[in-house]
């Protein structure tokens, strides 16, 4: 890996991977703690509608995905604020509509879009300096917002009813949480793509949950796991000429499998 850092694109990829790790470590922890995996998946896949809109209108897919994801987050928040577990149909419909709209708009866009697959499955090796600045800015906003609202998010994650009795505006905080998920999704697009992003949101926090007793500690450990998976996946993809996003996810999945087997052995299940 060290010899590869002589190339500018690898240095950009490394920086992008660290930014993605921070965003996914923080947001992924909140997703797992609040049991929002399905909602997060809906936002991630619906973001493809924003990509299609950006290609059709001729502006940045990053901005298109960001705007569309934020709108979808607000819609899903309105539909699920009273019950996160009874909105499966609505989430599925918005998920499908976002993807379908993206496909149609891509079909209507003039010219051939060679970078489309990279948006779906990630292409961290092609991250530009401009995109790094956008990713860094978004990650900074996400981290600052979570730090500012940490106590409220902590209570919401483990006891929403108690949060309401403490004067926390649960509906607004739930909406803010989904907006953060949308922002984190867009940050991770270049690393693993819209299709695989949910794995990076869930695997590192799930591993971290087994060894942490606080939400902040879980975020830190999840970030470390995510960074490790990204570094190993980047190294393997560079050496073996593999798709970077898929390689990162397979590395994470392998670690999750080993941890699951080890946990089962300790419980006497195997």
Low-confidence stretches: none
Tally of domains = 1
CATH third-tier fold name:
ABC transporter involved in vitamin B12 uptake, BtuC
Beta strand %: under 5%
Give the strand tally. 0
Give a description of the structure.
This protein has 270 residues and is mainly alpha-helical. The protein has a single domain, classed as Orthogonal Bundle (ABC transporter involved in vitamin B12 uptake, BtuC). Helices cover 81% and strands 0% of the residues. The chain is built from 11 helices and no strands. The longest helix is centred in the last third of the chain and has 40 residues. The radius of gyration is 18 Å and the shape is globular. The mean pLDDT is 82.
Characteristics:
ABC transporter involved in vitamin B12 uptake, BtuC, 81% helix
